[in-house]
Amino acid sequence: MKEQLALLRELQNIDLELDDIKSEKEEIVARLKENTGFLDKLVEDLNAQKEELEEIRSLQRRKQVDLEEIKEKLTARQKRLREVSSNKEYNAVEMEIESFKKSAEQTEEELLHLLEVIESTEESIKEKEDKIVQLREGIASDEAEAEKQLAALDKTIQSLEDRQEEARTEVSRRVIHKYDFIRSRRPGLAIVAAKDGHCEGCFMALPPQQFIEIQRGESLEICPSCNRILYFWEDAVGEESPAEALEEA
Ligand SMILES: [Zn+2]
Question: Could you tell me the distance, in angstroms and rounded to a whole number, from the CA of residue 223 to the centre of ligand 1?
C-alpha cells in the first residue's frame, strides 16, 4: 500500500498542477473577454451617438428650410409694403413683417444652438473613435501575447496529462476510484499526511489505533473527519513536486 500511496501522491501533485494551469488559462481567457466586452460597449455607444448626430443634422436641415421660407415671406411682405395704399393695410403688413423678423431671429438662434450641439457631438465621436483605435491595438497585442501564453500552457498541460495517464495506470483501480470520488466531491487535496496523530487535511486527531495502521501502511486509511486518504508523513519526505520535476527535465 505504501507504494500505491506514493503513486497517488505523485498523481495528486500532477492533478493539482493541472488545476492551477487550467485556472490560469481561464483567467487569461476571461481577461481577453473583459477587454473585448469593454470595446463592444464603446462601439455601441459610438453608434448610438452617430445616430443621435444624424437626427440633430436632419433637424438642422429642417430648420434651415424653415428659415428660408420665413425669409422669402419676409421679402415678399417688404415688397408688398412698398405697394400698399391704405394706412390700415400698411400697418397690417408691417406687423406681419415684425412677426416674420422675430420668427427668423428665433430660428437663427435655434440653428446656432444646434450647431454648437453638433460640434460637441462630433468632438465626442472623434474622441470615442480614437479611443476605439487605441483599444483595438491594445487588444490585438494582448491577444497575441495571450496566444503565446496559452500555447505554452497547453504544452505544459499536454505533458502533465501524459504523466497523469501514466500515473493512473500504475495505481490500483480501488485506490484510484476512491481518489476520484474524493476529488469529485471537493476540489483540492484528496490524499493528505497523517502527522503527530492528526490529519493534516482537517487537523483533527486520529484514533490512536488508526494512526498505527497508517504508519504500517498496509491498508487504505481514510480520515474519519474529512474523508481524505491518509499516508504517514515520513513516507513522503524527499518527494518532489511535478513543477520541480518539469524544471529538471
Ligand atoms: Zn482529515
Answer: 5
User: How many whole angstroms from 168 Cα to the centroid of ligand 1?
Assistant: 23
Q: How far is the CA of 224 from the centre of ligand 1 (A)?
A: 7
Using the mean position of ligand 1's atoms as its centre, give its distance from the Cα of residue 22 in Å: 26
Domain ranges of the chain: 19-169, 173-248
Topology of domain 19-169 in CATH is Helix Hairpins (1.10.287)
- Rounded to the nearest whole angstrom, what is the distance from the C-alpha of residue 239 to the centroid of ligand 1? 21
pLDDT in tens, 79-119: 999 998 899 999 999 999 999 999 999 999 999 999 999 99
Each residue's pLDDT tens digit, 178-223? 999 999 998 889 999 999 999 999 999 999 999 999 999 999 999 9
Q: How far is the CA of 13 from the centre of ligand 1 (A)?
A: 18
Question: What's this model's pTM, rounded to 2 decimal places?
Answer: 0.73
Nearest CA-CA partner of 4 in 191, 181, 228, 225: 191
